[in-house]
Automatic annotation (TrEMBL):
SUPFAM superfamilies attached to this UniProt entry: OMPA-like (SSF56925)
Lineage: superkingdom: Bacteria
Range of residues in the leader sequence: 1-19
Pfam families the UniProt entry points to: OmpW
Name of the molecule in the record: OmpW family outer membrane protein
Species: Winogradskyella marincola
InterPro entries: OMP/PagP_B-barrel (IPR011250), OMPW (IPR005618)
Length: 206
């Protein structure tokens, strides 16, 4: 619910800023690139009966490339990888250390950009495909995560510094689930990850 409220506030800011000056900043570049420092905050659900899954928050760099079809519509490809520690709290047993796993979730979003003087808010939605790799099993002998498709919502704000450079604030919500297999058990458990991604960085137009 808190994540949805954040998106609602950013979308409201987007339309408010757009109403101030729709004629400003009509020039645009076909390509943009951003380098952000992001915080990836998983929100695992209670998908496993009798156990709670916890994934650690990660702080990593993220790179994205944006192509503008016209002044308002663009597509953004987001690239980054994160490492998360995994713990499992089992009723009647206690905490288990499930080691760590790396996530590589390339995400493609379709965006709509607004213009208000030096501010350029945007909203977006798209798909991602998450690859799980570099698994450390921790207290278990074997654990596997299935690669999976997910969906993405996005809201952000660019602030123009000059003709080439700008600052960026970006929030994304990924809706992602994976099937987890433990110790070769033929039965899998579906686990929600649903990370909130908050980023701050700098961008270049070219």
């Amino acid at each position: 619910m808190k994540n949805l409220l954040l998106f609602a506030l950013l979308i409201g800011l987007t339309f408010s800023l757009n109403a101030q000056d729709t004629d400003a900043a009509n020039d645009y570049n076909k390509w943009q690139a951003r380098l952000r420092l992001i915080s990836v905050i998983p929100s695992p659900g209670d998908d496993i009966d009798g156990a709670d899954v916890d994934l650690s928050t990660a702080f990593v760099p993220e790179l994205d490339f944006t192509y503008f079809f016209n002044k308002n519509w663009a597509a953004e490809l987001i690239l980054g990888t994160t490492k998360h520690d995994v713990d499992l709290d089992v009723d009647g047993v206690g905490a288990l250390d499930l080691g760590h796993v790396w996530l590589l979730p390339p995400t493609l979003n379709l965006q709509y950009h607004f213009y208000a003087s030096n501010f350029k808010p945007y909203v977006g939605a798209g798909v991602n495909y998450t690859i799980f790799y570099g698994v450390d099993e921790g207290d278990l002998d074997d654990i596997e995560y299935d690669n999976a498709f997910g969906f993405s919502l996005q809201a952000g704000l660019d602030y123009t510094l000059n003709d080439k450079w700008f600052l960026n604030l970006d929030i994304k919500q990924l809706f992602l689930k994976t099937d987890v297999t433990v110790n070769g058990d033929p039965d899998t458990s579906e686990v929600s990850i649903d990370p909130l991604i908050v980023g701050l960085g700098v961008g270049l137009k070219f």
